[in-house]
Amino acid sequence: MRVLGIDCGTEYTGYGVVEQTATAELLYHDAGAIRLNKQTPLPERLLTISRRMCDIIAEHRPDHVAIEDVFYAANVKSALKLGQVRGVAMMTAASAGLPVWEYAPLAIKSAVVGYGRAEKSQVQQMVARLLRLEAIPEPADAADALAIAICHLHTSATLLRQAAIGG
């Protein structure tokens, strides 16, 4: 299974593509961030996110998309803008026929580090270790997106095992 993880933001939207093989090995494919200029009107920034995501989906052909749930915003205006970015990301994935899964930050940290209150640096270091990367992915939004993808792969594997046992 190949997963596109997305860490939404109004300045940087991180993305990361991770695949899990039949032997449960995690394979890194790509990661980066869609950089947005705060001076650009919001509709144009949203269009940029959609277009770049379409390119990433076409290039990497993920099976699923995983996205972080909104958990905190400095103010209502920031929360609304973040919600719009998330909406565009989810709509773009759904338009490509991909299922979209949402994960709380606590679940992501638990899946990657084993502790829901882990520090950001611990998550980034574990992402590099799990994917056998020589360095922590930059920018931080890319590492976060990879963590979201890994969370989905771990969660999916657990759900499949539970279904096999129960069914």
Kindly, what is the distance between the CA atoms of the first and last residues, rounded to a whole number of angstroms? 21 Å
Apparent shape: globular
* CATH classification class: Alpha Beta
Q: Please estimate the helix content.
A: 40-55%
Mean pLDDT across the residues is 92
Order of helices and strands: EEEHEHEHHH
Spatial order of strands in the largest sheet: 3-2-1-4-5
- The assigned structural class equals alpha/beta
The main pleated sheet reads as: 5 strands, mixed
Low-confidence parts, pLDDT < 50 over ≥5 residues?
Answer: none
Cα-based radius of gyration, to the nearest Å: 15 Å
Oligomer state equals: single chain
Overall structural domain count: 1
CATH architecture: 2-Layer Sandwich
**Fraction in beta strands:** 15-25%
Keywords:
5-stranded mixed β-sheet, Nucleotidyltransferase, domain 5, 167 residues, 5 strands, alpha/beta
Explain how this protein is built.
The chain has 167 residues and is an alpha/beta fold. It has a single domain (2-166), classed as Ribonuclease H-like superfamily/Ribonuclease H (Nucleotidyltransferase, domain 5, 2-Layer Sandwich). The chain has five helices and five strands. A five-stranded mixed beta sheet has the order 3-2-1-4-5. Helix 3 packs across helix 5. The longest helix is centred in the last third of the chain and has 27 residues, at 140-166. The radius of gyration is 15 Å and the shape is globular. The chain starts with a strand and ends with a helix.
Topology:
Elements: E1 2-7, E2 12-20, E3 26-35, H1 42-60, E4 64-68, H2 76-95, E5 100-103, H3 105-113, H4 120-130, H5 140-166
Parallel strand pairs: 1-4, 4-5
Antiparallel strand pairs: 1-2, 2-3
Helix pairs in contact: 1-2, 3-5, 4-5
